[in-house]
Amino acid sequence: MFDTKIAVLLRDDLAGWQALNVTAFLVSALPAELRGEPYVDADDVHYLPMFGQPVVVLQGDQGLLKKAHERALNRSQPMSIFTADLFATGNDEDNRAAVRKVHTQDLDLVGIAVHGQKNAVDKILKGARMHP
Fold first, then answer.
1. How far apart are the C-alpha atoms of 90 and 43, rounded to whole Å?
2. Tell me: the pLDDT tens digits for 9-67?
3. Letter string b/e over residues 68-84, b meaning 16 or more CB atoms within 10 A of that residue's CB
4. pLDDT tens column, 110-125
5. H helix intervals, 4-131
6. SS3 letters for 18-41?
7. CA dist list (Å): 70 to 41, 43, 100
8. What is the C-alpha to C-alpha distance for residues 124 and 5, in angstroms, rounded to an integer?
9. Which secondary structure element, helix H or strand E, spans residue 9, and what is its range?
10. Rounded to an integer, what distance in angstroms lies between the CA atom of residue 70 and that of residue 77?
11. CA 97 distance to own-chain centroid
12. Contact 52, 61 (CB under 8 A)
């Protein structure tokens, strides 16, 4: 078992491709220290390391996403965010600019990812349910 938890919370009205895209972007922000050792197959072909612990993917409505975001901010919990505006951008510079122009309380969040102590992450994401 792990003392920490990696969790992604997605808005429950996303199309399948959006949920996958948002999840990939959100977890890409997590620290490299969370990665395990590289993988090597029987032919000695090397593969990139992955997270050394499971990633839980949850969902909730817009209200729950806003509450979770507020809880994380109130606890000074580092997180990654994905806003609806990012579906219309095509690169990291435009993504950062799209987030930068919106006040915190006005962000149109479609997903967040957090990594932290299990109990803290559970409190932040209280009310979320497993993504199907």
1. 38
2. 999 999 999 999 999 999 999 998 899 999 999 999 999 999 999 999 999 999 999 99
3. bbebbeeeebebbbbbb
4. 999 999 999 999 999 9
5. 16-28, 62-74, 92-100, 118-124
6. HHHHHHHHHHHCCCHHHECCCEEC
7. 43, 48, 18
8. 12
9. strand 4-11
10. 10
11. 19
12. no
Q: Half-sphere exposure of 2 toward its Cβ, with a 13 Å CA cutoff? A: 16
In 10 A of CB 86, how many CB atoms? 20
- Bridge partner list, 128: none
One-letter identity of residue 24: A
Place of tokens 């095509």: 90
Of 52, 74, 50, 71, residue with least CA distance to 60: 71
Tokens found for residue 120: 């803290």
Tokens 């220290």 sit at which residue?
33
Verdict on whether the full-model pTM lies above 0.85: yes
* CA distances to 1, 40, 81, 87 from 9, in Å: 21, 31, 10, 17
Which tokens in the block code for residue 82? Answer: 């994905």
Please tell me the distance from the alpha carbon of residue 34 to that of residue 46, in angstroms, as a whole number.
19
